[in-house]
Automatic annotation (TrEMBL):
GO BP: any one term: endoplasmic reticulum to Golgi vesicle-mediated transport
Official protein name in the record: Protein TEX261
Subcellular location(s) of the protein: Membrane
Organism: Monodon monoceros
Gene Ontology MF annotations: COPII receptor activity
Family classification: Belongs to the SVP26 family.
Lineage: Eukaryota, Metazoa, Chordata, Craniata, Vertebrata
Major subcellular location class: membrane
Keyword field: Membrane, Transmembrane, Transmembrane helix
Listed transmembrane segments: 6-28, 65-88, 95-113, 125-144
GO cellular component terms listed in the entry, alphabetical order: COPII-coated ER to Golgi transport vesicle; endoplasmic reticulum membrane; Golgi membrane
Pfam short name (any one): Erv26
Membrane topology: Multi-pass membrane protein
Length: 194
């Protein structure tokens, strides 16, 4: 029975991993299809996160440094990333600093919740609604940056000549390509029989 329990745990983890991968693949496809609507929804999430932080400071008396870092992250970096959404450059200072501040924010949250006694459901709600939803939206949008048609053009940009002069990049490391590979490797492909 002991060996069977470990085997069942392995099978359950494999199914959960596949379900998460399928969900991420579907979300990436939706983001490519509805980029403008996703941008609007992400902006509403950012505003909601701001309201949550303000409410936590006023009603729950969360520490000022924790709320300050959170609002700094939201206003300066998330709204900055929304300006070019879904086209997020991994090498931009805005993206790099926002990733660093997300790590700092997680550290401050872990430190605060280790010292204060809150029920697990409330801690999970804080992490979900404030720390994970918005970075997750930006993470999923990384796959859509090359498959979405440009909505606006910068002065001096020519979409057609820009496409042909840049050439193809070496290795594409987008999440959609990884999920397509996993899907092709795990799931059998259908072939038409004539």
């Amino acid at each position: 029975m002991y060996v069977l329990s470990w085997l069942s745990l392995f099978i359950q983890v494999a199914f959960i991993t596949l379900a998460i991968a399928a969900g991420l693949y579907y979300l990436a496809e939706l983001l490519e299809e509805y980029a403008v609507a996703t941008s609007r929804i992400t902006e509403y999430r950012v505003w909601f996160s701001t309201a949550v932080l303000t409410g936590l400071y006023v009603f729950e008396h969360f520490p000022t440094y924790m709320i300050g870092v959170g609002l700094f992250l939201v206003y300066l970096f998330y709204f900055g990333l929304l300006q070019t959404f879904p086209f997020i450059m991994l090498t931009s200072p805005n993206f790099i600093l926002s990733c660093g501040l997300v790590v700092v924010n997680h550290y401050l949250a872990f430190q605060f919740f280790a010292e204060e006694c809150y029920p697990f459901s409330e801690v999970l709600a804080y992490f979900t609604f404030y720390l994970w939803i918005i970075p997750f939206a930006f993470f999923v949008s990384l796959s859509a940056r090359e498959n979405v048609l440009p909505a606006t053009m910068q002065p001096g940009d020519d979409v057609v000549s820009s496409h042909f002069t840049k050439g193809k990049r070496g290795k594409r490391l987008e999440i959609l390509v990884v999920f397509s590979f996993i899907k092709g490797a795990i799931l059998p492909s259908r072939q038409k029989i004539y």
